[in-house]
Specification:
229 residues, VWF_A, alpha/beta, globular, Rossmann fold, single chain, 21% strand, 7-stranded mixed β-sheet, 7 strands
Length: 229
Amino acid sequence: MSDNIFNRRNDNRNTDLITNPSPRVPVCLILDTSGSMFGDPIEELNNGVELFLEEVKSDEKARWSAEIAMISFGGVVNVCSDFQSVDRIDFKRFYADGGTPMEEAVMKGIELLEKRKNDYKNRGVSYYQPWMIIMSDGEPTTPLVKSYQITYKMSQNRKLVCLPLGVRDANMNILSKFSNQFAMELEGIKFKDFFEWLSKSVGAVANSSTTDAEVTLPQPPPTLKIKNC
């Protein structure tokens, strides 16, 4: 990506903060696309993310309030989308390849989130507690150093809703380190179930009366299990 294109995208995102005064719901998806996701799992993940984006678009309030960032980690960390409204996202389907650099991916997500929060503050835009979804089907191939300490502390201080999601052979003990809430485990590869629930949850937050309101989230589907690790 050229510097000119990157700068134009940043300008568009910042202009949107002026023209659209809606309180924001920042949602960061950090998705494992390593080689072990090859085949049906990566196809189901693609279908699930597409469903999520379409469901957010279909909710009039969430469409203008939600800002989505997507980071994949399969061999390398790739910022597929910085925080922006769902209408601006040009989704490219994921391909499975490489190892599982979870530490680097989560740190990149934290970096993007902090930058966007500063954008909100500098332009006087209010925002709801950010969400971060960390999905993996295996174990990190690089050491976890500080990413989980940062997300756990942010969760504990109510600065972040961190949802670790394990699929198939994921190490749930490792995933549970990232949040002060229990990690979740998805039955099989039913990503659509999870992303449908996530879109409804984001919609519930976007439609709440104020950014300080306590929000009752939809009941998770039966395929989504809470793991006490």
